[in-house]
Design goal:
Radius of gyration: 17 Å
Largest sheet: none
Number of strands: 0
Number of helices: 11
CATH topology of the largest domain: Cytochrome Bc1 Complex, Chain D, domain 2
Shape: globular
Low-confidence stretches: none
Number of domains: 2
CATH class of the largest domain: Mainly Alpha
Amino acid sequence: MNKLLVSVLMLAACAGSAFAQQKVDINRGAQIAQTCAACHGADGNATGPVNPKLAAQHADYLYKQLQNFKLKPGAKEPERNNAVMLGFATALSDQDMRDVSAYFEAQKLKPASGKNEKELRALGERIYRGGIAAKQVPACAACHGPAGAGLPANFPRLGGQWAEYTEAQMIAFRQGTRKNAPMMTSIAARMSDQEIKAVSDYIAALR
C-alpha cells in the first residue's frame, strides 16, 4: 500500500469520526432535500444517469462533496467545479449540509444495473478486484470494498451507481476537470477509455 493511499485512509477515518460527533436532524434534511429532488430524486434515487444516486451514500462523503462545491474565500474556483451545484451548495449552511447528507444516507438505494456484456464485465471485474499491475493501477476494491460499499468521507459507496455517471467522473478525473481527489486523478490518468467503461459497468452491478 503506497504512502498516498495510507494518508488518505487516515484522513478518511478522522473525517468520518468528526462527522459522527455532530448532531443531525434527518427530518429537517428531508425538507432541504426537496430542492434536490428534480435531479437526484426525492429519495436520492436519480432516475437518469446524468445525475448520481445519493441514496445510501455515506453522509460524511456527501457533506465533503457539498463543501467542495462551494467557493472558498480567495479561491478562483471550487475544489469541485460544477455551476449548478455551486448555486445549491452556496445557499446551504454547514448544518443544512449535515442534515441533508444524513437524510440521503438513510434512504434505500434502488441500484442501477450494468450492460452485462460478458467481455466488458470480465475486464471490469479484473480491474476492480485486481487492478492493472502493468499500469500501477490499484484494485478499486482496496478502497471501495469488495461490494462497492466504500469508506466514509473519502471513498464513496459505488455499488449500484449509474455506470454512465461513474464513467463520466473517471474521465473528469483523468482530464483534470474534477480535482477534489488527487489519488483518483492519478489512477484515472493511467486508464484507457475501455478500462474505465468496463470497471464502471462492473461497479453498477455490485450489491
